Amino acid sequence: MSLLVLRASQEAAAKSLSAVVADALRLDCPSLALQCLFWPLPLKRLMRLWGRQPVLVQRSDGGGYFDGLLTSRRVEELLAAGELRYGLHVDVTRYSEAGRRTLNQGQQVADAAEVRRLFHAGCSVRLLHPQRWVDPLYDLLSVLERHFNAPVGCNAYWTPAGTQGFAPHYDDIDALVCQLEGSKRWRLYAPRSEEESLPRFSSPNFEAAQLGPPMAEVVLHPGDVLYMPRGLIHEAFSLPDHHSLHITISTGQRIAWIDLLELAIPAALREAAEEMPELRQTLPRRFLDVMGAMHSDDERQPLRASILAFAQRLMQRVVSVAPLDAAADQIGAQFMRTRARPPQPADAPPRLRASSRVRLAFAGAARLCIEGDEALVVHPFANERGESMAGEEGGDEEEEEEDPAVLAFPLEAAPTLEALLRAYPQPVRLRDLPEEGEVDTMQVAERLLGAHVLTLVVQ
């Protein structure tokens, strides 16, 4: 593994990222934002490198490229508002040879003056999910979620001059580091073993003796972007002449093949047990005499060989009927419930006619799931910014209320819903929708339009 370094021309930074994001949302072209972040690297090549190789794009005059995203002054304003709590919204940390220390005071509201004092004393400030309060960041994450079709998060790191806030470690996410203010030196270390590549969980803190020499050492200046694949060990420290502010955008967390199969295989086993009597048979009387760690090297035992062969045949049959589509719907529905809420019109939805043409609000704006005798449409238009807040308290222990992110229809409405959700970017004329049984296609479309899942296409 090596670091790919590219240098963007001054002209490439002439338009701010916020302006590009606005274009990407308006045109429903989410790849535009990612392409501009890594220009001149072609997007197709970036996606081939994704998860495999770190990439750095340097902008010789990119001081205005991230204008409007976030500033240290805005961080101080958020602290002064008196709503940020330690551990939930903000962390104050210090790293030295003695190790990392977190100076949070429980989960109480962070006192702005105290945080500022600790900052000037050499402590780093990490703002968790600042997009909840900063509109340009919210829009950026929204457009990246559309591109990756997966959750995208963000943290901001405000670091005093000449300090290091965190120990060397690797993360369980793919990371995009955007340098906003000051400069920061990064040391990158390749995964130490195959077992540590593409990790499912973040690492503990490492000591220098555990790492050896870095594979790369670079300095990020305002406008620079660094991509780090999941599992890449890294550490960073601000330069001695100025504080540093950067954001780390994250994606790829808990959305690997293993996460899909963890949902699909148990469901397959439950279903197969109803259809395959062999799965319900009692284990052989001498099963424990030949199976287990103490018998694992007894390859010549005929009964053991027979048991292993039979178990493997059972597993193959179970896996062959794994409900991958249902598992994918679980992942997709969870994503819909946590992703950034898209912009929506303030006006009341227009009245529909049989001749009206409608279209999905944007690609991937909703998910059709089948649950029992219902067809469910799960969408993000009811999401609130604070719903995905880390450590947020659960709801009241009262009767479960209707989920505003889910529209329930009778199962026979599924063909109509599928036609509406899959036609994008082409519009659908309501009179052309398939009808099943007593389904009122006009009513189905009106409910989706009222929830902003559909938009009316003007003739």
Question: How is the topology of this model organized?
Answer:
Layout: E1 4-8, H1 17-27, H2 31-38, H3 43-49, E2 55-59, H4 72-80, E3 90-96, E4 99-102, H5 112-120, E5 124-128, H6 135-148, E6 152-159, E7 174-181, E8 184-189, E9 216-220, E10 225-228, E11 233-238, E12 244-251, H7 257-275, H8 287-290, H9 302-320, H10 324-338, E13 357-360, E14 367-371, E15 374-378, E16 406-410, H11 414-422, E17 428-429, H12 441-450, E18 454-457
Parallel strand pairs: 1-2
Antiparallel strand pairs: 2-10, 3-4, 3-5, 5-6, 6-12, 7-10, 7-12, 8-9, 8-11, 13-17, 13-18, 14-15, 15-16
Helix pairs in contact: 1-2, 1-6, 7-10
Task: Give structural notes.
With 459 residues, the protein is an alpha+beta fold. It has three domains: 4-251, Cupin (Jelly Rolls, Sandwich), CATH 2.60.120.650; 257-322, JmjC domain-containing ribosomal oxygenase (ROX), dimer domain (Arc Repressor Mutant, subunit A, Orthogonal Bundle), CATH 1.10.10.1500; 326-388 and 402-457, Outer Surface Protein A, domain 3 (Alpha-Beta Complex), CATH 3.90.930. The chain is built from twelve helices and 18 strands. It has helices at 17-27, 31-38, 43-49, 72-80, 112-120, 135-148, 257-275, 287-290, 302-320, 324-338, 414-422, 441-450; strands at 4-8, 55-59, 90-96, 99-102, 124-128, 152-159, 174-181, 184-189, 216-220, 225-228, 233-238, 244-251, 357-360, 367-371, 374-378, 406-410, 428-429, 454-457. The strands form four sheets. A nine-stranded mixed beta sheet has the order 1-2-10-7-12-6-5-3-4. Helix 1 (17-27) runs antiparallel to helix 2 (31-38) and helix 7 (257-275) packs across helix 10 (324-338). The longest helix has 19 residues, at 257-275. It is globular, with a radius of gyration of 26 Å. Residues 389-398 have low confidence and may be disordered.
